[in-house]
Amino acid sequence: DTILESEYIMTKLFLGQAEEECCHKAANYIRQKALPEGCWSIFPGGPADVSASAKAYFALTLLGDDIQAPH
To answer: Which of 20-29, 30-39, 60-69 has the lowest mean pLDDT?
Structure first.
C-alpha cells in the first residue's frame, strides 16, 4: 500500500517541506511498489486500484517525476 506515503508527500509539499530526505525515501518506496502495468494496488499482491494509483502518480508528479516515466 502506498496511499500513506502519497498523502505524506502531498502534505509535506503543501507545508513547503518537500525537499526533505524523508519525501525522497517515500517517493522511492512508491516507485518500487508500482505494478508492471504502471499502477498501484492497495495491498500486496492486489489488483490495480484507481485511488491508490491516482495518489501515487500525483505525489510523484509533484516531486518532479516525468509524466512519461514507466511507473
So the answer is: 60-69
What is the C-alpha separation between 63 and 65, in angstroms, rounded? 6
Single pTM value for the model: 0.89
C-alpha pair distances (Å), 7 with each of 29, 36, 42: 13, 22, 13
Q: Tell me, what's the pLDDT at 68?
A: 80
48 backbone dihedrals φ, ψ, rounded to 5°: -60, 140
d(CA 50, CA 25): 23
* Confidence (pLDDT) at 1: 86
Facing residues of 41 across strands? 48
Alpha carbon of residue 39 to chain centroid: 10
11-17 long-range contacts (CB < 8 A, ≥24 apart) are 13/62, 13/63
